Amino acid sequence: MIDDTVAQRVLGTALSTGGDFAEIFAEDRRSSAAHFDDGRVEQLSSGRDRGAGIRVVRGDTTGFAHTSDLTESGLSAAATAAGAAARGGGGGVREVALTRRNPDRPSEVEILPQDVPKSAKVDLLEAADDAARSQGGAIHQVSVSYADGRRQILVANSDGLLATDDQVRTRFMVQAVATGDTGMQTGYEGPGATVGFEMYDDVDVTEVARTAARRALAMLKARPAPTGTLPVVLRKGAGGVLFHEACGHGLEADLVGKDASVFRGKVGEMVASPLVTLVDDGTYGREWGTYAIDDEGHRAQRNTLISEGALTDYMWDFLRARKEGRESSGNGRRQSYQHLPMVRMTNTYVLAGQDDPEEIIRQTAHGIYCVQLGGGQVNTTTGDFVFGMTEAYMISNGEITEPVRAANLIGNGPEVLKAIDAVGNDFDTWAGTCGKDGQGVPVSAGQPTLRVSAMTVGGTAR
Amino acid sequence: MSDTDLLGLVERVVGWVGEGEAVEAYTARSRHTEVRAYEGEVESLSSAETEGIGIRVIAGGRQGFAYAATLDEAIVAETLAEARDNATFGTVDPFAGLAAPDGVAPAEIDLWHDELADFPTADKVALAIEVERVTRAAEPRIKGVETASYDDVSSEAAVASSAGIRASTRRTVCSVYIDAMATDGEQTQTGYGYSVARRPGDLDVAKAAADAAHRATRLLGARKPPSRHLTVFFDPIVTASLLGLLSRALSGEAVLKGRSMFADREGEVVGAASLTLVDDPTNPLAYGAGRFDAEGLATRRNLLLDGGVVAGFLHNSYTGRRSGKASTGSAVRGGFKGSPGVGSRALSLAPGELSQEELLATFGEGLLVQSVTGMHSGSSAVSGDFSVGIEGLMVREGVAAEPVREATVASTLQRMLHDVAAVGADQEWLPGSAAGVTLVVGDMSLSGS
Questions:
Q1: Do the chains contact at B227 and A228, CB–CB below 8 Å?
Q2: Could you say which residues from 338 to 357 on chain A have a Cβ atom under 8 Å away from some Cβ of chain B?
Q3: Which of B46, B87, B190 is facing A340, going by the closest CB pair?
Q4: What does DSSP assign to residue A270?
Q5: Does B223 have pLDDT greater than 60?
Q6: Chain A residue at shortest CA distance from B188
Q7: Cβ(A421)–Cβ(A207) under 8 Å?
Q8: What is the pTM of this model?
Q9: Contact A68 B388 (CB under 8 A)
Q10: Can you tell me the distance from the alpha carbon of A119 to that of A121, in angstroms, rounded to the nearest whole number?
Q11: What's chain B look like in SS3?
């Protein structure tokens, strides 16, 4: 994307106003999507984004500028703007020597999506629509989306780092709408992985579609969710969102550094039930949040955040780590070259425990069983967080009974982590998009079946 | 800014139209500055210009789309070729087509202020530092800020098509935003404040700071309330996001595709008589205002709910044609990266007679909701299920009383519309696509301990 010698000269320009660190992040992204809705292939679309963001750090101030012009003159103009923004004054010339670093790739892409005929992508949509509608006449609408993206990045900085990565992601999403006496209900399923078109060797799109349709149909029979506090059993997989919200964001070093986290100053302390070991692992398999290097050029790592209930560490990006005189944990990410990086999660999951998942349900007298969650939100300063249940059932006398309608659950991170009283020996993951300060990045969450002894359920039942 | 003439560019692209096809090109360019202050210093200063083009091709009743985040002419030509190729894979749809000029004249509104383009960076920095300083000084219990920022954007867009469309728009907007943290003993609470304007001279830093400090400190000591049914008073900013959720069910696309609870209900009563909802992007006070929609048709005032009755739906040219109606000038897109959908841009409820204070005094008891979380995780405009996390204050004897947190309020959108007891007089235009106003909804479920 950018020649090594050009990068060196541009970094020199960036530092010419007295900055003490400069970085070029260049990105070339190609994406394609196909959308099927209302019984027809509505549209195929393709996109191309290419450009570079340049940041200059001087003391505690960061200057940033970006450009879609990757020529030396375009990059130099952005470097000058970023340097000026960092408010330097007469720093003189600094030479930058770059060393190319080639990290081990966590996954090799077998089939680049751009090499697959568009007709093959369209075939997947039609098969999924058929499968969803075959689940019954109450399914009256189906939308299916295929998406793939290839993101080639290059990071060069004034510490001499030069690193590249080639990230390919593939996603398939089905939403079904069912209609009955109680109105309409939706069901959703959307697997995604950091792989190419070979994802479809493992993912059967007709099964994805049937799952979405079954979910919508089940919710037609749902009764209003209860109010008040109840034990909540989270099925393996989707419940990982709980940890993403309950403590993941609060363990991001940028928020901790501003005292905007209930977990500040708690390293070494017990912050969760001893049954909980939580990791954030950017190297994990072919998961949705996996990469070789982060968007600051640092290798993805497996970081243990909570070990048997004790807080072991926060997640770090380069800037926050540099301030503390330590290494980045490989969590510096950005939505695109148009954004500054910040501390972000990758694949965040709780390790499996000892309990039999069925036994966890059997030992719950009265509670909620969550099968699918639909995202959440947290106030890291207070620790209060919500997450939505999009498929859930009542548990009565240890049995899963009738479905309940969509509602949010609310809790306080430190309290909920300590209230986990059973952790299953199973495990699954869930792909989603995490938003922070207006930037979205792909992440996954995972966990075994587990139980929170009490959470507030945001329903309406009297 | 790069000096490419946007309208000239899209007209050139449309000139490349082939036989038997229709072409629409939409281009946008924006310049954005963001300053973040922390502890009296600049934490970050970003300045950036973004530009790009999105091209839609319709041939033989099939639609294809492609975009590129550059105006480089060689890549623009490749983008047209890609959109053309994409169109060959669509399903034939007799209603597929572009918007055609409909003779409606655009509103004479000017949303652009040169003052913003000429505003020196040093002054932007000073505003960000000032909003942080004033907030920290507002109250001894304000111990920190999470975010203190100044943002502005100047944007221009142009659209042209082989169906005869030719339109361009431009606008400026700037804002200051602050998230304050108040601490009292062991507990820390947060509160937001902001001011938004079309030019920097109209920003009210003192108000943003005072609001953030007030919101954060009044939540100190908040506890989880017991569960009960009660009247809920939604603060204006919360009402605005509620209207955004509701408006999805008033999109002609949702109606056509069977995803709207209001399908087949035009002319029927769906809510309280005090509910009159309008989407009017010709109102220059709205931050979503604009002379043209995303397909280049003039925007217009659309009445959606009239005294609780469904008065109409929003349409772009496709949904209008398929519904046997005309476009309501309500095509929207997520920038140049998307093809036109349908959406609201300037929603407002017809305001009532009473201020928030008077509403609390009139209704006497309930819950004042200052902020909500999870609006998109526990609620659905399709089913109508509504459940959100809240922070706020109990209302007792006509005034705001003790603060509450870690609770939810829930109902269904269908019921809430009927349970609307009053709309406040305190309408204010907010960043985004709706005006805020205090909204009083009876009989909602508060879930806590």
A1: yes
A2: 338, 340
A3: B46
A4: B
A5: yes
A6: A382
A7: no
A8: 0.93
A9: no
A10: 5
A11: CCCCCHHHHHHHHHHCCCCCEEEEEEEEEEEEEEEEEECCEEEEEEEEEEEEEEEEEEECCEEEEEEECCCCHHHHHHHHHHHHHHHCCCCCCCCCCCCCCCCCCCCCCCECCHHHHCCCHHHHHHHHHHHHHHHHHCCCCEEEEEEEEEEEEEEEEEEEECCCCEEEEEEEEEEEEEEEEEEECCEEEEEEEEEEECCHHHCCHHHHHHHHHHHHHHCCCCECCCCEEEEEEECHHHHHHHHHHHHHHHEHHHHHCCCCCCCCCCCCECCCCCCCEEECCCCCCCCCCCCECCCCCECCCEEEEECCEECCCECCHHHHHHCCCCCCCCEECCHHHCCCEECCCCEEECCCCCCHHHHHHHHCCEEEEEEEECCCCCCCCCCCEEEEEEEEEEEECCEEEEEEEEEEEEEEHHHHHHHEEEECCCCEECCCCEEECCEEEEEEEEECC
| Interface with chain A: mutation pick from B57, B264, B447, highest number of A CBs within 10 Å | B447
Is-contact A304 A251, C-beta < 8 A?
no
Residue A284 DSSP label:
S
If phi > 0 it is left, if psi is from -120 to 50 it is alpha, else beta; for residue A382 that is: alpha
The Cα angle at residue A244 between residues A240 and A246, in degrees rounded to 5: 105
Residue with tokens 């770059």, as numbered in its chain? A98
What's the one-letter identity of residue B329? G
User: For every one of its 462 residues, what pLDDT tens digit does chain A have, with 9 covering 90 and above?
Assistant: 899 999 999 999 999 888 999 999 999 999 999 999 999 999 999 999 999 999 999 988 899 999 988 999 999 999 998 988 887 544 445 566 677 666 556 557 899 999 999 999 999 999 999 999 999 999 999 999 999 999 999 999 999 999 999 999 999 999 999 999 889 999 999 999 999 999 999 999 999 999 999 999 999 999 999 999 999 999 999 788 889 988 999 999 999 988 889 999 999 999 999 999 999 999 999 999 999 999 999 999 999 999 999 999 999 999 999 999 999 999 999 999 999 999 999 999 999 999 999 999 999 999 999 999 888 899 999 999 999 999 999 999 999 999 999 999 999 999 999 999 999 999 999 999 999 988 999 999 999 999 999 999 999 986
Query: What is the Cα–Cα distance from B215 to B180, expressed in whole angstroms?
Result: 9
Flag if B44 and A61 touch (Cβ within 8 Å). yes
Alpha-helical (H) ranges within A285-396 are: 318-323, 357-362
Taking the CA atoms of A298, A302, A306 and A311 in sequence, report the sign of the dihedral they define.
negative
At A54, list the tokens.
């340049």
Residue B140 has a CB neighbour count (10 Å cut-off) of 10
Q: Which helix (H) or strand (E) holds A123?
A: helix A118-133
Between CA A179 and CA B352 the distance in angstroms is 36
State the average pLDDT over residues B228-246.
Answer: 96
Query: Could you tell me if the ipTM is greater than 0.85?
Result: yes
Residue of B nearest to A460 (CA): B445
